[in-house]
Specification:
Blueprint lengths: L3 E9 L18 E4 L9 H13 L4 E4 L10 H9 L7 H8 L4 H10 L4 E3 L3 E6 L5 E7 L2 E3 L7 E3 L14 E4 L9 E2 L2 E2 L3 H10 L3 E4 L7 E6 L22 E5 H8 L7 E4 L8 E6 L13 E8 L2
Amino acid sequence: MSEYIKTTFLIMSDSHGHQLLSGPVTGHIDVAIHCGDLTNESKIEEFQKTLQYLQELKADLKLVIGGNHDFTMDVPAFKKLVANAKQTLEPELVRKTYGDYGEIRNILSANAAAANIIFLDEGSYEFRLRNGALLRVYASPFTPSLSGDWGFQYHLNEGHHFEIPETVDVVITHGPPKGILDYTDGRRAGCPNLFQAIARAQPLLHCFGHIHECWGGKLVTWRSNMPSNSMPSHITHIDNSKSTVLSNISRLEAARQTSDLACFSVDFDVTRSGSQTLFVNAALQGTSEITQVPWVVNVPLPRV
């Protein structure tokens, strides 16, 4: 009996209330992942539309986290936004458009279970998949921000502690780690705390979105025998000579010249796991509209 089971993931992010797929995905999907920004303005109708898309998606398990645009899922942030509005908001109008505090979570919970959709808060989870594999996940919707005006955000100067266990297989976050698929407006917008946590845990797969213009994938090879108390960096902990960019927006556009792509596919070789992490930025929305595609990734997971 094989020690590992090939498990197929469909990964997307930043759909902002739009259709998730532009065409059919061939083959069986074991786990679908949405890395947040289900909506654009966190309105009830946007959540309902995305929930319908997720319900129609054919996958054994669907894992979803919130993003900064999904601020009504973050009740403290929602209350802060209403209280700090430049003009006093009519409570009835707020309820009609966005729901009461906590209502969105209740709506999602009530309609998700029947379609195998699970909304994840920050933390670690284990799932026994229908294909016989064990999936260990760490999830976090939090992203850094200098203003903190949206949901699930923390000030960059204060940082955030990501408690990623070393046994994890897949990390799902809304934002990227600093230095990997995070370049925007002439700077690196990823979180340094997240990079350090990922470098220590070295999961098989880390998927995210948030930075639309950095859609793509990168296979990172970690250096071995690093001291456990050393501070991870891109120079000391990554073997850049053995790390590879698998795709980016320019390559996606080039591939579209010859074929219609509904998704971008990649296999992760089990013989190299343990020293490599596959990073995927799966943002569907480009600079202004949905122009990018989800990823289909085959990952070997341990048999239960």
